[in-house]
Design brief:
This protein is mostly beta strands. 3% of the residues lie in helices and 38% in strands.
């Protein structure tokens, strides 16, 4: 994965880092289609109780991450973007800010998302970035 974003910090234990499942036994998989959209990072989410895995199935993806922190604050100056090759699984630890991937060279992208069943119903915090903190992916 190539680092593409402006930050010079090196985030540790954010991607390919695994995470605990806090006793959850069920897991769910979701095949999601993401369509080409402007490469503007304006939305972030995180989960407290488990890791999330993403696997781009039919094309490369850009994913953005930021380190875990307070529930009401994304550390915008520490956001990093990675180009994830098709067929490469990325696992995000609990608390890591992220959101859906962006297409790189295709008009749509099928991505396998792996999370415990019904996680979005009880453990998903979503924030929209203020206009001044929206970031553009420039590749």
């Amino acid at each position: 994965m190539n680092r593409l974003h402006r930050s010079d910090s090196h985030l540790k234990n954010i991607y390919n880092a695994g995470g605990k499942n806090n006793g959850e036994t069920g897991s769910a998989r979701q095949d999601r289609f993401y369509h080409r959209r402007p490469r503007v990072i304006d939305t972030y989410e995180y989960h407290n109780t488990c890791a999330e895995a993403m696997l781009p199935l039919d094309g490369d993806a850009y994913i953005h991450v930021a380190p875990a922190g307070p529930a009401d604050h994304v550390p915008y100056d520490e956001v990093e973007v990675f180009r994830v090759p098709k067929g490469t699984m990325v696992t995000l630890r609990p608390g890591v800010w992220h959101h859906g991937p962006f297409c790189v060279d295709t008009d749509s992208l099928q991505t396998l998302i792996i999370l415990p069943e019904r996680l979005y119903a009880y453990d998903c915090t979503v924030l929209t970035a203020p206009e001044a903190d929206k970031l553009r992916i420039e590749a």
